[in-house]
Amino acid sequence: MKIGKQNSPFQSICTSNPDTIVVRGHDLVEDLVGSISFTEHVWLLITGQLPTVPQRRILDATLVSIAEHGMVPSVQVSRMTLAAAPEALQGAVAAGLLGCGSVILGASEDAGRLFQEILEEQKSTSAAMAAATEVVLRRYRAEKRAIPGYGHPLHKGRDPRAEKLVALGESTGTAGVYAEIARTVETVLPDVIGKALVMNVSGAIPCVLLDAGYPLLALKGVPLLARTASLVAHLLEEQQRSIGFIMSRGAAGVIEYDGPAPDGFVANEN
Amino acid sequence: MKIGKQNSPFQSICTSNPDTIVVRGHDLVEDLVGSISFTEHVWLLITGQLPTVPQRRILDATLVSIAEHGMVPSVQVSRMTLAAAPEALQGAVAAGLLGCGSVILGASEDAGRLFQEILEEQKSTSAAMAAATEVVLRRYRAEKRAIPGYGHPLHKGRDPRAEKLVALGESTGTAGVYAEIARTVETVLPDVIGKALVMNVSGAIPCVLLDAGYPLLALKGVPLLARTASLVAHLLEEQQRSIGFIMSRGAAGVIEYDGPAPDGFVANEN
Amino acid sequence: MKIGKQNSPFQSICTSNPDTIVVRGHDLVEDLVGSISFTEHVWLLITGQLPTVPQRRILDATLVSIAEHGMVPSVQVSRMTLAAAPEALQGAVAAGLLGCGSVILGASEDAGRLFQEILEEQKSTSAAMAAATEVVLRRYRAEKRAIPGYGHPLHKGRDPRAEKLVALGESTGTAGVYAEIARTVETVLPDVIGKALVMNVSGAIPCVLLDAGYPLLALKGVPLLARTASLVAHLLEEQQRSIGFIMSRGAAGVIEYDGPAPDGFVANEN
Amino acid sequence: MKIGKQNSPFQSICTSNPDTIVVRGHDLVEDLVGSISFTEHVWLLITGQLPTVPQRRILDATLVSIAEHGMVPSVQVSRMTLAAAPEALQGAVAAGLLGCGSVILGASEDAGRLFQEILEEQKSTSAAMAAATEVVLRRYRAEKRAIPGYGHPLHKGRDPRAEKLVALGESTGTAGVYAEIARTVETVLPDVIGKALVMNVSGAIPCVLLDAGYPLLALKGVPLLARTASLVAHLLEEQQRSIGFIMSRGAAGVIEYDGPAPDGFVANEN
After folding, report:
1. Which residues of B touch D (CB under 8 A)?
2. Residue of A nearest to B239 (CA)
3. Which residue of A88, B42, C26, C133 could cross-link C31, Cys pair, CB 3.0 to 4.6 Å?
4. For residues B227 and A90, is the Cβ–Cβ distance under 8 A?
């Protein structure tokens, strides 16, 4: 099989010999284990460089902000899967992560791409940021795409998590062009879509991470990593106090069958 | 459907109202985001309590120690999956985690269960630790089960990661009964299996985590969380410099077909 | 890395050259596509031989019998996952299959192993089948293992799917030693466990498949393949009339939070 | 949580009471098990109607044509996952399916969408089919999108599987407007892209299925279902003659590390 052009058979993340494991150029045992935090290691793995203190604080804050939000679909999926297949905790985690898609948790990545498009529009046209922002937002509207990272079904007036992250970007001195873009989107939005929408946590996460130098193409890794921690916690509880099938009955109980049935059939599954 | 007895319809991890998200009793935005590290949050999510500094350092060290080990099967699986399905990064992460099973990365959990069995044997019989250890190890042998957490295919003489973690358990003052058990297993093993095997990283991880108060039933969460970080790093590289199909050809190239074929058929797929 | 002993680098399922794809010794295009049914192809792929008509009918019947059973956990998981990640239908199918574990749908495989153990007990001791069955059932009881394939939460008196499959085994002439074992288990059970339990569909599936010559180690493939068809049907409906988040709210609505909260916090997520 | 508008809490696939399971309006036990083939059941589940003989033959042929193609990435992923996590066959199947994405196996669905766009273009403009086809193909080119379903890396001159399926569409009398569109694309392509490309199996599958009345939004279900059968066969072989880690070593062996390393480090992992 020959699929796609791939002619660079290299990786640059880890190598080893029988004595030493080298991760991103560092001796894992001598220099990293016991010396750096997991968050620093995550930054190192992803970017190839150890983070500065502000970079580390931003990554910590974004991971903490979205790790856990109660009985969301991915948690339900994961706990129901463990109840059905207790022999494979990794399967329950995987099932939960599979729901970290474009509708849920994907908004961070989408908002990051929006900010990047605005930045590129601004750079290529040398227009003012507000003008570049309006061009991109109107393009989204013309293509009937939602504006990711703004508005929230629950926290109508403001999103406290977003405010906290943005404030941290400022206090750590990492805030930069993406913070400017994110604010500009909030300002321009009412003109473009006819109503005001405040930045939510999915907008704030790429805003502060991109300003801190975290790579756009790994943005989705942040909710995935954060959510893995949440799933492990829920799966520990599920092993001790299982609710997987209780939730399944709750879910089934709100759905009715409206298809055909044989004459005389009376549904009463219970 | 009624499957299993589940009559406790509760969870105790997170609740919220439109203003506040409460995680393990703490106001997420006010008290946690920007204030604690991700590792502290992981410990809080899983145990319900914020960690002490030694607990946090132990969890950090174990996560750092096993996050990355080069082109292992789970990384290959994940990168091959992204090359085939680039629209779903979460699918590539999930595929990689599905290989964190009993043979690979499951040894940490298995070693933790071994230590726990030895502890329970010792407690229930009031025997000396060495005697209790020998009883349990001989039971494993009788059941033809491998002794998890000892020996390593690569690092024959010693496992530097294990030594580093055990030393950290001692220097942080968390080392306790599990460290004693782990050492005792190493001492007793030659008598039981006829050769010496040193503790490896999969033995050291449960040893130091259990001593620090991390729950046994969440042990597998440590390699799963650590490996998620590694997968995100590899998937970023895969997007920039894809090797998924190169590895697939490499894998196919070492396997031959030895089944039947029609008369005159000459295989030469390439 | 060297994990496990693997020194036979062969596969015997498929080979090809630029003109011909050979599957289990047959020219795929010339001999199979358009000529055989999918069920015949499944049997060929798994066993290496085209099935007889009775074998094909048994495999068809078992697949049909367990493909669909309403809003079971795996279907809920799959539809919730698609609602959250509509970009990856394969992810939603995978999430659904991850719940085909030991508690749900795994019973077919477990029952097959039970029957096999009884057969081996009978062969190795030359005892009567009833005696061999009792030995194995008592061993299960001593190990506190459930007897897989018997009893059903819903269909208390009898399981019509099981009866239908067993009758088909007889009418196709495939019924043999496994049918005898399955009946014997039903007869011996009351003595061993103190109450009567009838064979359910998870017992009938391995009974008829093993008698037909289907391999024990691929038994789980039957529910997995059948359930994939069900998931595809549900995911088509989910795209047209989504209920994923409705089910999620239904599931969340039956679970209460019983953990700590800050003073004055009033939960009212909605 | 309120995500998306979902206000139709119904499903129409299956209902049951303690005596009867109803699938798409039919009594499962009385009318389907033992009476219809699995392929007929798949069609029933997906479309709500039992298939005609030509419909069933088309679905059988497409499933048989793409179930198996040797050591492709999804098979490698699945076998490597089982070697690492033998406790969860469902996890290995899920991992394999996660690679059935847009690059591999997704082309069938993409080609179906292409054909549908051409049909809608033709209907809305009342243009000749060739003109409508050219409009859509030129739009794809302007958007720098590949033309799915045409060309093949291996079978350069012709794709025998595609020819066989198209011929079956004609011989069963199901061939219709999609066959016309598929042929027209082949005719128009040289003018639009500057070279001739023949229809491949990913083009032929939606061509014959859509003509037979199979729904566009379930097209991806065909490769997913077919591939599940292949994975089960490979996983049976993997249990008996494991090659998972052999393939992993083969894959690792073709990738080199080109990142930094500490002074004096000599890589020689093996």
Report:
1. 70-74, 76-77, 80-81, 83-88, 91-92, 94-95, 98-106, 154, 243-255, 257, 269
2. A217
3. C26
4. no
- Which amino acid type is present at position D117? E
Reading the block at residue B205, the tokens are: 């991880």
Architecture of domain C107-218: Orthogonal Bundle (1.10)
Neighboring chain A residues of D18 at a CB cutoff of 8 Å:
268-269
Where do the H-state alpha helices sit in chain C?
38-47, 53-66, 73-84, 89-98, 107-125, 129-142, 160-171, 177-193, 201-212, 221-240, 244-252
B63-74 pLDDT, tens digit each: 999 999 999 999
Interface test with C, best of A14, A74, A247 (most C CBs within 10 A): A247
The domain locations on chain A are: 107-218
Nearest CA distance, A148 vs chain B (angstrom) = 18
Tokens read off for B220: 């597998």
Task: Say how many CA atoms lie within 13 Å of B91 toward its Cβ.
Answer: 35
pLDDT score for A3: 47
Nearest to C228 among D6, D218, D224 (CB): D224
Among A54, A27, A30, residue whose Cα is nearest residue A40: A54
Quote the CA–CA distance of C190 and D46 in Å, as a whole number. Answer: 42
D195, two tokens: 């070279």
Q: Does the ipTM exceed 0.90? A: yes
Is the alpha carbon torsion for B66, B70, B74, B79 positive or negative? positive
Instruction: Give Cβ neighbours of residue D72 (< 8 Å, ≥ 6 apart).
Output: A1, B248, D104
Q: What is the pLDDT of residue A180?
A: 98
Over residues C239-256, the mean pLDDT reads: 97
Nearest-CA neighbor of B19 among C259, A72, C266? C266
pLDDT, one tens digit per residue, over B110-134 is 999 999 999 999 999 998 999 999 9
Question: Which residues partner with B26 through β-bridges?
Answer: B23
Measure in Å the smallest separation between the Cα of C175 and chain B Cα atoms.
30
Is the pTM higher than 0.90?
Answer: yes
- Whether residue C268 and residue B15 make contact (CB cut-off 8 A), yes or no, is no
Task: Of A244-258, B5-19, C213-227, give the lowest mean pLDDT range.
Answer: B5-19
Average pLDDT over residues C191-216: 95
CB contact under 8 A, B38 and A226: yes
Indicate the helix (H) or strand (E) that contains A121.
Answer: helix A107-125
Quickly state the pLDDT bin for B3 (edges 50, 70, 90): very low
How many angstroms separate the Cα of B102 from the Cα of each of B106, B136, D12, D14, D82? 4, 20, 40, 36, 10
At what angle are helices A160-171 and A201-212 packed, to 10 degrees? Answer: 20
Q: Which residue of A has its CA nearest to B46?
A: A233
Q: Which two tokens mark A169?
A: 């970007």
Are B100 and A90 in contact by the 8 Å Cβ rule? The answer is yes
- pLDDT the model gives residue C242: 97
Q: Are B4 and A85 spatial neighbours (Cβ–Cβ below 8 Å)? A: no
pLDDT of residue B1: 38
SS3 B40: helix
At B1, the amino acid letter reads M
| Each residue's pLDDT tens digit, A27-80 | 999 999 999 999 999 999 999 999 999 999 999 999 999 999 999 999 999 999
B219 interaction partners in chain A (CB closer than 8 Å): none
Closest by Cβ to C1, choosing from B2, B72, B262 = B72
Give the pLDDT confidence score for residue A158 in this predicted structure. Answer: 80
Sign of CA dihedral B13, B6, C246, A224: positive
- Asked if B85's CB is within 8 angstroms of C90's CB, the reply is yes
Residue B100 has pLDDT above 50, yes or no: yes
Chosen from D26, D33, D222, D241 to mutate, greatest number of chain C CBs within 10 A: D33
